[in-house]
Amino acid sequence: MRHDSATKEWRQELVAANVLARDFNPEGPNESWCADTAYISTRESGPHLTAIEDLFSRMVVGYGRSRWRVGWSSVRP
User: Who contacts 72 (Cβ-Cβ below 8 Å, separation ≥6)?
Assistant: First the structure.
C-alpha cells in the first residue's frame, strides 16, 4: 500500500503538542487547564457538553453546551 507523504504531514499537524508532559500536578492555579467534550443524550438541551478544568484546584473554570460538536465556540467562564 502506498502512502502519500502530504497526507501524513497533514495528519501530524492535527496532533497537539504535549506541553503538559503528563505533569497533572501544577504548583499554582491557572498554570494548567484540561478540556474535554462529552456527548449527552437529552431532549431538552444540546447533546455536546464541553468543560474546562483547572488542574490545580480541580474546579471547572468554563463550560458550554452545543447541539453540534463545536462546543469550543460556546464555552463560557
Answer: 50, 64
- H-only helix segments in the chain: 5-13
pLDDT along the chain (77 residues), means of 10: 58 75 90 86 74 94 78 56
Cβ proximity of 74 and 51 under 8 Å: no
Which grid coordinates are listed for 30? Answer: 491557572
What is residue 55's predicted lDDT score, i.e. its pLDDT? Answer: 94
- Closest Cα to residue 33, out of 59, 17, 52? 52
Q: What is the C-alpha to C-alpha distance for residues 26 and 55, in angstroms, rounded to an integer?
A: 7
